[in-house]
Design goal:
Order of helices and strands of chain A: EEHEEEHHHH
CATH topology of the largest domain in chain A: Ubiquitin-like (UB roll)
Strand content of chain A: 5-15%
CATH class of the domain at 402-465 and 629-777 in chain B: Alpha Beta
Largest interface: A-B, 55 and 54 residues
CATH architecture of the largest domain in chain A: Roll
Radius of gyration of chain B: 27 Å
Shape of chain A: globular
Structural class of chain B: alpha+beta
Number of helices of chain A: 5
Strand content of chain B: 15-25%
Bound molecules: FE2/S2 (inorganic) cluster
Helix content of chain B: 25-40%
Distance between the termini of chain A: 49 Å
Helix content of chain A: 25-40%
CATH class of the largest domain in chain A: Alpha Beta
CATH superfamily of the largest domain in chain A: Beta-grasp domain
Largest sheet of chain B: 7 strands, mixed
Oligomer: heterodimer
Distance between the termini of chain B: 42 Å
CATH topology of the domain at 402-465 and 629-777 in chain B: Aldehyde Oxidoreductase, domain 4
Number of domains of chain A: 2
Number of strands of chain B: 29
Number of helices of chain B: 19
Strand order of the largest sheet of chain A: 2-1-5-3-4
CATH superfamily of the domain at 402-465 and 629-777 in chain B: Aldehyde oxidase/xanthine dehydrogenase, molybdopterin binding domain
Number of strands of chain A: 5
């Protein structure tokens, strides 16, 4: 079935079998392997991507659902060599250990910061509750999101000033 | 974070990156999505591997449709035990586990055949077409019943100590029965723990590729590439030098990728060898939870005796570990239970009898802590019962008994160096505000019914490395190579699986040579290019590979210094921050210039290093002597609120203080502590796999509850007392496993403190907590 959509800013018009999961299309057809399959059934959040700015689980999403929409994966948030503040903050705080959950966390955090640029630690903890990390105990992930939020607010102020 | 030193030991001086919270060297690849995990490898034309598994718990295969499957379009190979060209075995400690079951199946999910399918969609559909008929038999599920004489046979006689008893180990020190009889205070309890699943976020997976000269290449997620190489060599009947094993980015392991990757790699290798094509085998999450090893369920009995002041006089312990159908790592896991059974405490009279038992269930194996959490829960619970009987504060009781330098362990090992147990206890007491909190909580609890507050403590010790159970594995090699531009490449066989080894070892290499962290690079762990550094288990990578790297750099350094002296024309030089400086003046030259000169003058720029850590005087017959070359220690204190209407437990603060010797990287170390503590919290509170008739009911994350961000307290205080270990690299010893070991006991003790009743089995679900509370009232 012919679908039209964009992924990381690039437009696609493509014939895709309608029972194709978004995660498989992204990983296998577009080689966007930051999208991780931790469970395949909507329980872990590692496959999170943004569709029109909202986080969705790509393991539960079928291609027809993205017709006419914009998909954003972790690969799409870097600006050339320049890391996104969230990426840099995960590095600086030690929010990354094995890194398998990291793409999913960064994507849900991005959605959060788009909606709420100044979340409290408790708001962050609640927001990421659907994503599992087995390595970090979450605290350094919360630190990372908090730090990125601060950088992004400061950056915004700098732009406005 | 504040850092403290134990000044009883000599300090080893550091000038470079050791001791700094440097950013992880692998972090950038992981935040951009560039890190390539096993499932991210797509060799062109790769076949998809499907493992055909037993659907009965115990029985015999009597018929199958494999002949028909072989004829199907898209099916490139169907292999059974008969088609294994080498030995039909997955070697771990014993050779009792077949790669593919021959006809007897011993657990639900046991592999009986392998299929290579062209196309992933076709592979998804093949499951419905497989037909296997079994003659079912009544399974043996209960370890205690399994040991009865009339029990059907699960363990193969050549691999058991009699019947279904895999292994029996014993410590017998002093006269424990006498001590118990003579002691005024005696407490007893029986404790149970269930399955704990690793739940590494990346499921198991490997890719096998045909390699030159009839060899094979494996790329996969794993802890121990040299184990994998051995397993593949055995099943294919190929010499070790034809097999190349490359560890790729590994998404968590926690012991779950110690021996299991040998199995997956053997399967992918068999199919690739048979078809001469690349083969990819990735477990989906349900399959992974269902058929891979877990923490051994346990039943443990303790009798603990003390004098009226609370000084321990004797501890008597009976341990049963449920091994499942094959030995895998059980003998080593059991040994760790045995040796750790009295914890970090002085006990003059000890008797421990530990048994691992065969049942018709999935074989259990390594999980962070390796047999010790199953005894820590009981021994720390017993201390609480004792404190209550004696009428003494829980921390005070521990202070009286905790091991200090000069004390001896249950195996009569005298502890001399790097014994920070007492400091962890004192520091945790201080950081948690123990005494004030106790007062405040008892005040609160006397006035409130719906929410009860509690505080709990747990102290642990952990033998670093393999110790006397496998001293042949406590060795490590390292290669270093100075490149002509002054950068340093190093290679070891220990792996990065998320714990931070790559960063910590890079810091050690940089420190040893006197260069900046960014000037060193650790090569990918590829068995054809890196030395065997032993397995990446037992919290041993920092100490073992660290020492080997330091040794290698020390072998290389004189050559650098010789050339530098020639350039500078001075007698003695030192290397610091990438510069070689004359010690008697301020002449200096950059390392890159010296390296260039070395290259031009045909100086050998590579060196090897070696490290070995034996234990002395171990007598396996009596279990006396040095069990480990050194121990790490920790104390955790947890504060909880228990809702007495729902039984729900809420952690409000967790304090974790560790002695792992010198901390090479405080940031990654704190990360290990926080993450490990979280796994222990899950073990104590929520992680449980329901089983019926030997089959897991719901092997998924909806039913197996891994802690989420809301379950782990944001208020977590991590601190290190650094009782330096002079024989470790820059004074370091092991850390990885200890945080999990220490946290769960503190949680369960805090719950008991809140509800004034004990819970004798993990996990302490709300239902159990509520019941204990109501029964206790
Ligand atoms: S892979 Fe999609 S939620 Fe786990
Ligand atoms: S960093 Fe390993 S699962 Fe989160």
């Amino acid at each position: 079935m012919e679908l039209e959509f964009t992924v990381n800013g690039r437009e696609y018009v493509q014939d895709v079998p309608p029972d194709t999961r978004l995660i498989d299309f992204l990983r296998e057809d577009l080689n966007l392997t930051s999208v991780k399959e931790g469970c395949g059934v909507g329980e872990c959040g590692s496959c999170t991507v943004l569709v029109d700015g909202k986080s969705i689980l790509s393991c539960l999403t079928y291609m027809p659902e993205i017709d006419g929409k914009e998909v954003l994966t972790l690969e799409g948030i870097t600006d050339g060599d320049e890391l996104h503040p969230l990426q840099q903050a995960f590095i600086d705080t030690g929010g990354v250990q094995c890194g398998f959950c990291t793409p999913g966390f960064i994507m849900v955090a991005l959605e959060l910061l788009n909606e709420n640029p100044d979340p409290t630690r408790d708001e962050i903890r609640k927001w990421i509750e659907g994503n599992i990390c087995r390595c970090t105990g979450y605290r350094k992930i919360v630190d990372a999101i908090e730090l990125a939020a601060r950088w992004m607010r400061e950056g915004q102020e700098a732009v406005e000033a | 974070m504040e850092r403290r030193r134990d000044d009883s030991n000599d300090e080893v001086s550091v000038k470079g990156p050791v001791g700094e919270g440097s950013r992880r060297v692998d972090a950038r690849d992981k935040v951009t999505g560039d890190a390539q995990f096993a499932a991210d490898i797509f060799p062109s034309g790769a076949l998809t591997a499907v493992v055909v598994r037993s659907t009965v718990t115990r029985g015999r295969v009597v018929d199958d449709n494999f002949e028909e499957l072989r004829e199907m379009e898209g099916v490139e190979a169907v292999l059974t035990a008969e088609d294994v060209p080498g030995e039909n075995v997955v070697p771990v400690i014993e050779d009792d586990q077949p790669a593919l079951a021959e006809s007897t199946v011993r657990y639900d999910g046991e592999p009986i055949a392998l299929i290579a399918v062209r196309g992933r969609r076709q592979a998804d559909q093949i499951g419905d077409l497989i037909e296997v008929e079994y003659e079912e038999e009544e399974p043996v599920l209960d370890p205690q019943k399994s040991l009865q004489e009339n029990s059907p046979e699960v363990a193969q006689p050549e691999f058991s100590e009699g019947g279904n008893l895999f292994t029996r180990l014993e410590i017998d020190k002093g006269d424990v029965d006498r001590a118990i009889e003579d002691s005024p205070v005696v407490v007893e309890g029986e404790y149970e723990t269930g399955y704990q699943e690793h739940a590494y976020m990346e499921p198991q997976g490997v890719v096998a590729l045909p390699a030159p000269h009839g060899g094979i290449e494996i790329r996969g997620t794993m802890q121990c590439p040299y184990y994998v190489r051995n397993a593949v060599s055995r099943v294919l009947g190929l010499s070790l030098n034809r097999i190349k094993v490359v560890q790729v980015a590994t998404g968590g392991a926690f012991g779950g990728k110690e021996d299991v990757p040998s199995q997956l790699s053997a399967y992918a290798a068999l199919l690739s060898h048979a078809t001469n094509e690349p083969v990819k085998l990735i477990y989906d999450r349900r399959e992974d939870i269902k058929v891979t090893s877990k923490r051994h369920p346990s039943t443990v009995r303790y009798v603990t005796a003390a004098d009226r002041d609370g000084n321990l006089t004797g501890v008597k312990v009976g341990i049963y570990l449920d091994s499942g159908a094959y030995q895998t790592l059980s003998p080593a896991v059991l040994w760790r239970s045995l040796v750790h059974a009295t914890g970090p405490y002085n006990v003059p009279n000890v008797k421990v009898v530990a048994r691992s038992v065969a049942t018709n269930k999935v074989p259990n194996g390594a999980f962070r802590g390796f047999g010790s959490p199953q005894v820590i829960f009981p021994y720390e619970s017993q201390l609480e019962l004792l404190a209550e009987e004696v009428g003494i504060d829980q921390v005070e009781l521990r202070k009286k008994n905790i091991l200090r330098p000069g004390d001896v362990t249950a195996t009569n090992q005298r502890l001399e160096k790097s014994v920070g147990a007492a400091q962890t206890l004192e520091r945790a007491e201080e950081l948690s505000g123990w005494t004030e909190t106790k007062r405040e909580y008892s005040e609160w609890n006397s006035r409130h019914e719906n929410v009860k507050k509690g505080i709990g403590v747990s102290s642990v010790m952990y033998g670093v490395g393999m110790g006397a159970s496998a001293p042949i594995l406590d060795k490590a090699g390292a290669y270093v190579k100075l490149e002509s531009d002054g950068s340093l490449t190093f290679a070891v066989g220990n792996t990065e699986m998320g714990q931070g080894a790559e960063t910590v070892l890079s810091q050690i290499a940089a420190e040893a040579l006197g260069v900046r962290l960014e000037d060193v690079n650790m090569t990918e762990v590829d068995t054809s290019r890196v030395p065997d550094s032993g397995p990446t288990v037992a919290s041993r990578a920092t100490t073992m590979s660290g020492n080997a790297i330091v040794n290698a750099v020390n072998n290389l350094k004189p050559r650098i210094e010789r050339v530098a002296k020639e350039i500078l024309g001075c007698e003695s030089v030192s290397i610091e921050d990438g510069q070689i400086v004359c010690e008697d003046g301020d002449e200096s030259v950059d390392l890159d210039e010296v390296a260039g000169e070395m290259w031009l003058n045909n100086v050998d720029m590579a060196a090897e290093g070696w490290a070995e850590k034996g234990v002395k005087d171990w007598d396996p017959e009596t279990a006396r002597g040095d069990a480990y070359f050194v121990f790490s220690y920790a104390t955790h204190i947890t504060k909880v609120e228990v809702d007495t209407v729902t039984g729900k437990v809420n952690l409000t603060q967790h304090v974790a203080v560790h002695d792992s010797g010198r901390i090479i990287n405080p940031t990654t170390a704190a990360g290990q502590v926080e993450g490990g503590a979280a796994q222990g919290i899950g073990f104590a509170l929520s992680e449980d796999l329901a089983m019926e008739g030997g089959k897991f009911l719901d092997p998924d994350f909806t039913n197996y509850l891994v802690p989420t961000s809301m379950d782990i307290p944001d208020d977590m205080i991590v601190d290190f007392v650094e009782a330096e270990y002079p024989e470790g690299p820059y004074g370091a010893k092991g850390l990885g496993e200890v945080p999990l070991m220490a946290s769960h006991g503190a949680v369960i003790n805090a719950i008991s403190d809140a509800i004034r009743a004990r819970i004798y089995s993990y996990p302490a679900t709300p239902e159990k907590v509520l019941k204990a509370y109501l029964d206790g009232e």
